[in-house]
Amino acid sequence: MHMESEKLLQWLKETVNYQSEDIPKESIPYFLALKEKLQTVQEEEQRVRGELAFIKAAANAMPNPIFLKDEYLRYVSFNRAYREFFGVEEGAYIGKTVGELPFLSEKEKIQFHNEDYVVLDRLTSVKYETDFRSAEGRSRESLYRTQGFFVEETGVRGLVGEIVDISGEKETQRELARTLKDIREKTQELQDQKQLFHILVSGTKDIFVMFSSQDYSVEYVSPNIRELLGITAEEVRKDIRCISATALDLDQKLLAAQLSAIPVGGSFRILNEHVHQRTGERHWYNKTVYRFLIDEEDKFVLVMSERTAEMRALNQLKIAMETAKSANEAKSNFLANMSHDIRTPMNAILGFSHLLGKEAENPEKVLDYAHKITSSGQHLLNLINDILDMSKIESGKTTLNITEFRLSGLLEDISVVVESQAKAKKQSFEIRTDGLKVDRIAGDKTRIQQILLNLLSNSVKYTGEEGRISLVVSEEKQADGRLVHLVFQVSDNGFGMTPEYLEVIFDAFTREQNSTISGIQGTGLGMAITKNLVDLMGGTISVESKKNVGSTFTVTLALQNMERAGVDASREEQRGYPQAEAQEETMQGRRFLVAEDNELNAEILTELLELEGVVCDVAANGEIALQKLRESERGYYDLILMDIQMPVMDGYQASRHIRMCDHPDANTIPIAAMTANAFDEDVQKALESGMNAHVAKPVDMEVLKATVVKLLRRNRG
Q: Is 80 exceeded by the pLDDT of residue 50?
């Protein structure tokens, strides 16, 4: 007991400055109990200081500004990010209210004070987006949030606030994960701050882990790790490598090497995709590891921030860039092809036009040059039509104009066109029907004719002289008689195609390159247009070919059987096509009103019509044409040729005004659109405006004559 008294006396002198040399025996138990209690308090104080140091380190490691206020709305603490954001010195403004912050405007001071009062009084929260001006003077879009709290165990009341910079989120339309708020309180409020810290962590999509740098033993895990990664905090405490196991592309050995390379006070960042261990969902996380000395112990703090929305936006941007790059390459290829294909006929047109001037006195050469200019011009027109057709198809603006027509009439029209082409090359051409029982059908006659003429024209083009070309039309048997399934087979014994070219034959701007066909002109769009039109009609197209043997194209289309429907043939399309009834004497002595704003076009048309014995009055726009008709006598004009795109009043408006005016011929005089607006919707729009027919520019006189004769005879009848 004596030795114990001596030790106790020495402890009292050192600890509480106890000076007496004697300790009453009855006081020894009391002092021993006091010593034990003080030692316990010192140990608890040491533990609390360690936890406070961790919280301070974690708080200062977080990138977002936070602040803490007491029940009198006075600032208790700011974290490092807050001080750096607003340029506040450490310890400055502690104990002051928001009204004393110089970096806020008066309006902001009043707004934040009123909000804080309500939040604290009702223990509620507010969250909204606003702008804050940082210390460097830059305005940042931010998410501002405050939360009131009350700790029943200690009676502590206050509020915590955070500012999250969401400028990047606004720019990339994503929601940045809100980071945790650093908390720094007085020592006696440490437990309450720790509880508040856990509350804040649970409400975010960020994960916090603190572990030792020596053995990687885990000292803290944010409770939301189960929700975000599908692993429990207990699993992480047992082995921190279970976090790495959720990553798709993380080398754990590399991770250990990276950790050891982080200097004290430094950090390391890596971006990985992680798989939720329960749901299988994939999310991207930006992992930042900070290294600190806490009470002379080397610690790591891992912060995992979700970046899924950001990575998705980045991937979408990459896809968009690749698409734009492909589109740019396609544009370059298109321009290169078109430059070559347009310049070829233009070179012929300009060259032979120049030769015409040189050989004006030689009738044979003039006729030869004129024929070649016409041929080159027609080729250029076909090229332009192909480009426009392809453009409409690719933009999704191509529509079908379904009308009733006779299959026999379609085949007759095709025969007239192809026979003349085949005769020029001394080829034989025939059309055969195999067991056809249906003649009246409904579909887009113009597009079907375009498909067949594309295939047949190619057969003529790629078959040598005295070759054979055929079109065989048959009908597939179907249970449903409301539809007729027609099979069109175009065959030739021409040059044929290689297996390699057959794989890309329906791609735009593709032509087989060999010495046999190198001199044949073409855009490389015909087959692409044909394939797209067949697809638009819900049909199929296939090809079989063998080099130097020939080719066979098979098109299958399902069309409406109008004979089964019991409906009479309604109307043919009202475009202008050459017909046998076109006779020159029917135009002789007629007077036409021509609405055309282009002087050169008007001059050409007038000259051509005068050669047919027609007298022309030219109006520079629709309004003048309307006025000329109003001022004319009954029957003065036999027909009106109406351009569409004209100043003052266009062709559509002029036609409507003519049909509504009080002239005796207003409702009966034929009006034919004569325009470069040559798409199906243009034809329909012309008919809806009161016109009777449509002739596309550049004008084919045979087409124009046939159309005019038909209109004049109809009007006379």
A: no
Q: How many residues does the chain have?
A: 717
* Strands in 613-697 per DSSP E: 615-619, 639-642, 671-675, 693-696
Phi, psi of 644 (to 5 degrees): -100, -60
Interatomic CA distance for residues 593 and 640, integer angstroms: 5
Which pLDDT value is given to residue 458? 86
Residue 223 three-state SS: coil
Summarize pLDDT for 563-611 with one digit per residue, the tens.
765 444 333 333 333 433 434 446 888 999 999 998 888 888 888 899 8
The model's pLDDT over 14-25, given as tens digits with 9 standing for 90+, comes to 665 555 555 565
Query: CA-CA distance, 636 to 88, in Å (whole number)?
Result: 93
In this prediction, residue 330 has a pLDDT band, given cuts at 50, 70 and 90, of low
Mean pLDDT for 82-98 is 84
In this structure, are residues 603 and 635 in contact, taking their beta carbons and an 8 Å threshold?
Answer: no
Q: Is the dihedral of CA 110, 111, 113, 118 positive or negative?
A: positive
pLDDT of residue 710: 87
Q: How many CB atoms lie within 10 A of CB 368?
A: 15
Nearest to 306 by CA among 222, 184, 211: 222
Angstrom CA distances, 291 to 212, 219, 263, 264, stand at 10, 14, 7, 5
* φ, ψ for residue 275, nearest 5 deg: -110, 125
Specify the residue for token string 């004008």: 699
Q: Tokens 């030790």 label which residue?
A: 7
Q: Per-residue pLDDT for 183 more than 50? A: no
Q: Which residues of 640-667 are buried (b: 16+ CB within 10 A; e: fewer)?
A: bbbbbebeebbbbbbbbbbeeeebebee
Half-sphere exposure at residue 109, Cβ-oriented, CA atoms within 13 angstroms: 11
Cα gap 680→381, rounded to integer Å: 17
Q: Which is more confidently placed, 288 or 417?
A: 288
Residue with tokens 């016109």: 691
Distance CA 604, CA 183 (A): 88
- 547 DSSP 8-state letter: T
Are the CB atoms for 533 and 445 separated by under 8 Å?
no
Contacts of 660 by beta carbon, 8 Å cutoff, 6+ apart: 666
DSSP structural state of residue 230: S
Q: Mean pLDDT of all residues in the chain?
A: 78
CA dihedral 266, 264, 189, 67 (to 10 degrees): -20
Going through 481-549 in order, the beta strands assigned E by DSSP cover: 483-492, 540-546
Rounded Cα distance, 546 and 502, in Å: 10
> pTM for this one?
0.40
- Summarised one tens digit per residue, pLDDT across range 55-80 is 667 667 778 888 888 889 998 888 88
C-alpha closest to that of 460 among 517, 503, 525 = 517
Q: Which of 644, 635, 447, 426 shows the shortest CA–CA distance to 531?
A: 447
Cα 85 to Cα 448: distance, rounded to the nearest angstrom: 71
Beta strands at 156-165 and 66-69: parallel, antiparallel or unpaired: antiparallel
Give the distance between the most distant pair of CA atoms in the chain.
151
Angstrom distance (rounded) from CA 78 to CA 64: 11
Element holding 404 (H helix, E strand): strand 403-406
Tokens describing residue 548: 């130097």
Helix 526-536 and helix 445-461: axis angle, to 10°?
150
Which residue's entry shows tokens 């300790």? Answer: 23
Section 26-49 average pLDDT: 69
The whole-angstrom separation of Cα 299 and Cα 627 is 94
Please, which pLDDT band fits residue 516 given cuts at 50, 70 and 90? very low
Per-residue pLDDT tens over the stretch 332-349:
666 666 665 666 667 777
Phi first, then psi, for residue 442 (nearest 5°) are -125, 135
Torsion over CA: 101, 102, 104, 105 (sign): positive
Strands 66-69, 483-492: pairing is: unpaired
Euclidean distance between CA atoms 227 and 419, whole angstroms: 77
Asked whether the predicted pLDDT for residue 7 surpasses 60, the reply is yes
